[in-house]
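Closing statement on the S-adenosylmethionine sub-project.
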Amino acid sequence: MSDLAATLTQAWNRRKALNLLPDTTFFRALHLTESHGMTLDVVGQVGILSFYQHFSEAQEQTIFGTLQRVLPLETVYLKRRPVEARHVTNTSREWLSPEHPIYGPPQSEIIGLEQQVKYLFRPGSDLSVGLFADMRLARQWVREQAAPRVLNTFSYTCGFGLNATLGGSQTVKNVDASRKVLEWGKENYTLNGCETADLDFIYGDVQEWLKRFHKREDQFDLIVLDPPSFSRSKKGIWRAETHYGQLVSETLPILSKGGMLLACCNHAGISMAQFKNQIRKDNPGLKFHRSLPVSPDFPAEQESHLKITVWGR
Ligand SMILES: C[S@@+](CC[C@H](N)C(=O)[O-])C[C@H]1O[C@@H](n2cnc3c(N)ncnc32)[C@H](O)[C@@H]1O
């Protein structure tokens, strides 16, 4: 803990040297591999500090004080993400993601920029605050493709869909099982002057919708797959390490000839080789095109937590 001030300063200077500002005001300022069990994301003057290990109350106070002394942030919110928290049934939402900042004036809704695209962030609302910084170059890639018909599955706040729309895609459908994040996605569209037709923000289970699109004979030129690595539903447990290849197979009937699939997986326990092999095993006709890099504000890891891959038929 004693060298936290030095670690923070070094990490901050490293981000400064990337020259992300002013076009990008949302970035990772401190990653787990450089830190003491914590990460720090920044949106403008607001920091979002996440703890991945348990700290005593005294240690927490030392961390907050050091952060306030060393970094030029007005307000900092806290998220607690210790692995054990998932197993503690009575862990309160307020403890995991306190609504109020640990210091500074509340900034419950703020607008952040990523390559000049605007996004709405809610730093105190939930563990996820509106966007994942590590996917920045994948969103850029989607914008640059300008594929005519795009399907953004597991859309969350519709970052991929928004970028496809901004890039000139004609039809963009976002699918998510949460109405709240789809509404949030509409707010992101509106912030950037894009139209929000209800038909483009589809509520429901992705696998059900893949079947429905197939039945309707809909076709897409780019399909974005970015599921959570683990989920439990009425249908059972879904795990990226065993079920991802099958999910890809379910998208193929609605992927146009010459279409592309952006398959992403955020799971440190799966290597890039394992991820590609799994997709290949279940989909021998699909061709691997390339992988996309994680944003440069995430220090290079030997085996990245995030796999971003492009496939074609
Ligand atoms: C990892 S986030 C996706 C991040 C998003 N692609 C982005 O770039 O910001 C996972 C999302 O999948 C949604 N989700 C989880 N299971 C789902 C399902 N079976 N059908 C539809 N959406 C689902 C969650 O509501 C959540 O918004």
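The first strand starts at residue 26 and ends at 30. With this model delivered, the sub-project is considered complete and its resources will be redirected to Aim 3.
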